[in-house]
Amino acid sequence: MPDSADIPAAGLPERLYRTIRLIRRFEERSIELVKSGDIGSGVHPCIGQEGVAAGVCAALVPDDVVFSNHRGHGHLLAKGCEPGRVLAEMVGRVDGIDRGRGGSFHPSDFSHNVYGATGTVGHGAAIAAGAAWAAKQAGAGQVVVSFFGDGAVSQGALLEGLNLAGLWQLPVVFVCENNLYATTLPVGTAVAGTITGRGEAFGIPSSTVDGQDAEVVLAAAAAAVRRARDGGGPALLEMSTYRYHGHHTFELKTRLRYRDPDEVARWLARDPLEIQAARVPAPARERIDAEVEDEVAAAVRFALASPRPDPGDALAHHYSTGLPARAGVAD
Amino acid sequence: MPDSADIPAAGLPERLYRTIRLIRRFEERSIELVKSGDIGSGVHPCIGQEGVAAGVCAALVPDDVVFSNHRGHGHLLAKGCEPGRVLAEMVGRVDGIDRGRGGSFHPSDFSHNVYGATGTVGHGAAIAAGAAWAAKQAGAGQVVVSFFGDGAVSQGALLEGLNLAGLWQLPVVFVCENNLYATTLPVGTAVAGTITGRGEAFGIPSSTVDGQDAEVVLAAAAAAVRRARDGGGPALLEMSTYRYHGHHTFELKTRLRYRDPDEVARWLARDPLEIQAARVPAPARERIDAEVEDEVAAAVRFALASPRPDPGDALAHHYSTGLPARAGVAD
Amino acid sequence: MPKLSYLKALNRALGDEMERDPAVFIMGEDINLALTNTTHGLLEKFGPDRVIETPLSEQGFTNFATGAALAGRRPVVEYQIPFLLMLVFEQIANQANKFSLMSGGQASVPVTYLLPAAGWRSGWGAQHSDQPYPLFAHMGVKTVLPATPADAYGLLVTAIRDDDPVVFFAPIAALGVREDVEYADLGPVPLGVGRVHRPGTDVTVVAVGHLVHDAIAVADELAGDVSVEVFDPRSVYPFDWAGLARSLDRTGRLVVIDDSNRSCGLAAEIAATAAEELHLVAPPKRVTRPDGAIVGAAPELDVALQPNREQLTAAIYKVLKSGL
Amino acid sequence: MPKLSYLKALNRALGDEMERDPAVFIMGEDINLALTNTTHGLLEKFGPDRVIETPLSEQGFTNFATGAALAGRRPVVEYQIPFLLMLVFEQIANQANKFSLMSGGQASVPVTYLLPAAGWRSGWGAQHSDQPYPLFAHMGVKTVLPATPADAYGLLVTAIRDDDPVVFFAPIAALGVREDVEYADLGPVPLGVGRVHRPGTDVTVVAVGHLVHDAIAVADELAGDVSVEVFDPRSVYPFDWAGLARSLDRTGRLVVIDDSNRSCGLAAEIAATAAEELHLVAPPKRVTRPDGAIVGAAPELDVALQPNREQLTAAIYKVLKSGL
Ligand SMILES: Cc1ncc(C[n+]2csc(CCOP(=O)(O)OP(=O)(O)O)c2C)c(N)n1
Ligand SMILES: Cc1ncc(C[n+]2csc(CCOP(=O)(O)OP(=O)(O)O)c2C)c(N)n1
Ligand SMILES: [Mg+2]
Ligand SMILES: [Mg+2]
């Protein structure tokens, strides 16, 4: 059985720093590609939340499954997906992880056990419960992680999924990235009670974790993953975190005012990149930074060089069996 | 403002006994009308659970609103609806509370502030939250009661409704009649955690109450109603109760085996009718029993004497504005 | 030859597929005790790891099935009431059915959604008698509505083996239908292939589900006077347009009788496609439900809203008399 | 004359109705900050008791609106994304829309469901571009899809004042449309009454929503060569069959261009009813979406799946050349 409890300590700070740095730079370049019009959908940047993706995925083995959400680029990169193919997907090219059919909002990469990101907020948690049930039945010790935000915890299907996971003691770790807002909605005006209280209501051990410190995240995730792997059932981890950018790049234009500048400043002072950087000796850090620059630059080149899909293929992949979708005009 | 805290103590045991007795005999006669084919839908008998309806509704004033569910006859009778018109509805006649359009499953009687019983288990709780919000805005101290079963607490929409009620501190009392089964599903195999824990997760004061003792039910309900009326917000009352009959009269034929005879016997020993009867002097009891017999007999006569709807009216009432539903054949 | 009932055919198909493929399992409410009878004996035979009793969390367990399917399993999810398919409509049409597309073909979601109680329940009121299959057809979700026990068996087997989501509607009014069959002859029925129950030359009557039997009865009644061809598409989506085209090439006249609502219903799609693309020598006619719920506690009101044989007969004579 | 945009018309209708009737209130996600711009200025003007910001609990707050309506209020519920109307489909079609019937006329549920983002968002993928209005039409839920700012204003006012549930679709592609209007001329537009945007004698083109503007453009283009009448039903349900009949009595030829999926879509209903009940001298033609989601991150793939002017033009010439 894979064992996430013994995460090689050697080079751990560097590995976490590398992942965070990769996600940060990837997102920054993505925003540029939004501005240049290459990413038509815009993106939901996870800048400021990289510690969660890095820490959680460091607790996983390749066989473990991840369900992402709309703010998912970091989850995929941390799970080991190729930056070039992820970015190619975001710009809608044939070399994208989903052949340009998923885009930034619905990425999946089955070669790295990222099963997808449904656009229906919260529903991925119930889907994850089903995958976890299948994993438990298979008995290979596979663990499923479901990422979602604070807005998702008021969605009935998610709560139903928590009940099923608690009832059947499924190997799933629910990771709630509480960045204090659902688009413009402050968590305090949406959630009666607490987020961890919702997990506990369904008999799921739940705790609040400092999401800005990747090593703290990793420790909490590793414990939850180990317990799930050993048949101890589900866990819910509420990650206290913050997004430094708008909900979606449309905020670059709309400039919605819903966050207190002092609040933003307080969270900027706890930048997961800087927190982890402080644990890595300068020379190693510079080496990693340089490698990440090259990797991201290569990813952008790869993505933009990839061919656009043939509009003639627009009806492909609608069905797994190859049934062509019925056309809109009769010939 | 109406005040449910001062429920006239004089004759209280008799009043509660009378209500329980009325519901019991009404349900027994209904089952006969199912057997005779007069009630086409069959019924979900509430025999064994009468103490909950009697006790809760005794805590209400006429202005208060009730949302019922599929096992709702007792709720209506306890809220003061005319037995004859309720029964006429169940046999599908024009004098029914809903002109024969609601039937046993979807009864509403706006003349007694019974707003209905949607067939979608659990969803009535979220609908009730909306009515409670409107009541709070109106500021007349109206309280809304939502009845549902143990099966309903795993329905996402209900949980969403609890969150809204907790978040906005709405004057609604959620009454969960935990009769230990959802059709054939034992509550323990459906609910991870506890039912009261679900209310508490959303910041709603929640408690478990002996549903077989109408006076205990009334005390708990009166306190919750009073707090809601005074702006203290919602409450969830889990009523421990049991249905003595099958889920639905179809069990008279199907004879599903899912309850341990000893369990049934234990609960029969705590019959809400007998518990309350013991508190009423024999002469009064005999008088009430006789009155109830007459009332139920009159109800049956009234219901069966009422005309059947004209099939020509089948497309009426589909729209409040009188828009006729589009017919299935063009002439 | 043994007589096979529609209900027994469903039960048999489930058992055979669970036997054949360990990836197949069933989940739903009250299935341990087989409230709907479709799962009769399955718990005893396959145990609680293959027969999963669920809480009243339809959205949750519909998504759950999607997740299990993404992980390689073949779930069959049973729903007790037609409106439950509206309750989970988004989970099926917008999620399960889009994973293949959104993943560029990496993912497949081989879930079968089984409704063994489609359509009218006498006196059960406005919320227990719907026929929501046109909703799924509109969203391009594979949907079947077999009329006979052998077709029910064959299409359930096919639905379970299909790599895409498939919604299976079993009409309440057809569950009692029995048919003489050799079990050995039972086998998969392909999606999107219709069936001519009764050949005819004057008019094509398209019917699905339990109305197929009414159409056959009317055809028999009119025999001698009118030669009615009864075409049963069996699948609502994909639809056997080629089969219908062959029938209309013979008859040139079309009547559709359908138990779903009129507006944007299955009969609308069939009439529209026939008018636009197929051979018609007279305007098509539809006999459907009104755009209204089945009414309530009074069966006479319900019956007044259901397509019936008299309406079908009248429609047949109308199209025979008319021309373009 | 001031220029009124479609979006501003929605905002103005909401404000005017909230002003006129204290029973009216609006609830939804991110409406305090008017993310969709429809609620711009309303919080400031009417306060948090009339503008209710909600958690991500669409089913819960859709039912909540039903409860508030049963208690005498007139809720307007905003949804950000088309699929959210599928998520709450059961709450609207099987619950809110059936209370009047189930109560024998005692209850009314005057809720307006407002979707200010219907249809394609370039590059937003398979789950943000649906047009689910035929689903509501099938269930007999009152549904409107206005094309112009004045109609958007008038039908939103009507929807709010109507005593039944009404689903209001505002197509993304029409939100930018502007129109010269005297505010004094703005007023309610009745349900089920269509509008001829451009009279013609050769062929009737039925279009709804943003496609009305494409239809008008094509009609202008073909003017001189072909006389195209552009008929905009404005309401999807109830539908103005009398208005369409009058148009077809003139033209006898029908093309429907519609942005919803083909099977059991709005175009199917229009073509079917025309073929069965109205005056046609040639087979009708449909130009619709395929039965597939708008594809994904590649706009070129999306565009390939949307009905366009070239297809409409080709269809018009086809029906002109054909006969019955
Ligand atoms: C069920 C549902 N409701 C609403 C939306 C629109 N929407 C997309 S993301 C989002 C905010 C989600 O907030 P949260 O869950 O906290 O995640 P975050 O964006 O903060 O990472 C909303 C409202 C949706 N996609 N699905
Ligand atoms: C959402 C939903 N799921 C399933 C059903 C079918 N159904 C009707 S009543 C019922 C059992 C309800 O059990 P519970 O809530 O405990 O109430 P009880 O019948 O015990 O009074 C079920 C499964 C339904 N009507 N609605
Ligand atoms: Mg958030
Ligand atoms: Mg129960």
Structure notes:
The complex is a heterotetramer, with 2 copies of chain A (331 residues) and 2 copies of chain C (324 residues). Chain A has 331 residues and is an alpha/beta fold. Chain A has 12 helices and 8 strands. Chain A has helices at residues 12-35, 50-58, 73-79, 83-90, 123-138, 156-167, 195-201, 214-229, 251-254, 261-268, 272-277, 282-305; strands at residues 65-67, 114-116, 144-149, 172-178, 181-182, 185-186, 206-210, 235-240. In chain A, the strands form 2 sheets. In chain A, strands 2-1-3-4-8-7 form a 6-stranded parallel beta sheet, with helices on both faces. In chain A, helix 1 runs parallel beside helix 12 (282-305). The longest helix of chain A is centred in the first third of the chain and has 24 residues, at 12-35. Chain A starts with 11 loop residues before the first helix and ends in a 26-residue tail after the last helix. In chain A, 62% of the residues are buried. The mean pLDDT of chain A is 96. In chain C, the strands form 3 sheets. Chain C has a 7-stranded mixed beta sheet with strand order 3-2-4-5-7-6-12, sandwiched between helices. The relative contact order of chain C is 0.12. The radius of gyration of chain C is 19 Å and the shape is globular. Chain C has 324 residues and is of the alpha/beta class. Chain C has 13 helices and 14 strands. In chain C, helix 1 packs parallel to helix 8. The model of chain C has no long low-confidence stretch (mean pLDDT 97). In chain C, strand 6, helix 8 and strand 7 form a beta-alpha-beta unit. At the C-D interface, helix 5, helix 7 and helix 11 of C face helix 4, helix 5, helix 7 and helix 11 of D. The structure holds thiamine diphosphate (TPP) (2 copies) and magnesium ion (2 copies).
Beta strand count of chain C: 14
Radius of gyration of chain A: 19 Å
Order of helices and strands of chain C: EHEHEHEHHHEHEHEEEEHEEHEHEHH
The tally of strands of chain A reads 8
Characteristics:
heterotetramer, A: about 325 residues, alpha/beta, six-stranded parallel sheet, two-stranded antiparallel sheet, about 10% strand, C: about 325 residues, seven-stranded mixed sheet, 14 strands, about 20% strand, binds thiamine diphosphate, binds magnesium ion
